[in-house]
Design brief:
- It is a single chain.
- This protein has a single domain (14-117), classed as Ribonuclease P, Pop5 subunit (Alpha-Beta Plaits).
- It is 29% helix and 36% strand.
- It has four helices and five strands.
- A five-stranded antiparallel beta sheet has the order 2-3-1-5-4.
- α1 packs across α3.
Length: 118
């Protein structure tokens, strides 16, 4: 039996955040997932974070300065919770005793449109 695909009117509306990460030590995509979830859970709590529908879609390593490594990523979240997710990212400041800065550099409705910020 074939599964039915939900019509567009019943699907959740997603937004795609393009974020920039600056940190003193190198990280992987799994580390970024851990950073994002920890930041959201600490600031919003488990019950609210479960509604965010967070997912790291793409992860790019950009360059390394003398002081920090620079990464960019595209993160999916639900449309109604964009401001909550952005505020949680702004409050993340430490990971493994290294300072970290996560800033949102773009917001779009599709992955393709969010890649223009990279």
């Amino acid at each position: 039996m074939k599964l039915k695909v939900l019509p567009p009117t019943l699907r959740k509306n997603n937004r795609y955040l393009t974020i920039e990460i600056k940190i003193a030590s190198p990280i992987t995509k799994d580390d970024l997932v851990s950073i994002i979830w920890d930041a959201c859970i600490r600031f919003q709590g488990e019950s609210n974070t479960a509604n965010f529908n967070l997912w790291v879609m793409k992860f790019f390593e950009m360059d390394k300065n003398d002081e920090y490594y620079c990464y960019k990523a595209i993160v999916r979240c639900q449309r109604d919770f964009v401001e909550d997710v952005r505020s949680s990212f702004a409050l993340a400041n430490k990971y493994n005793n290294n300072r970290i800065a996560i800033t949102t550099i773009g917001l779009s409705g599709t992955i393709k449109a969010s890649q223009k910020y990279i």
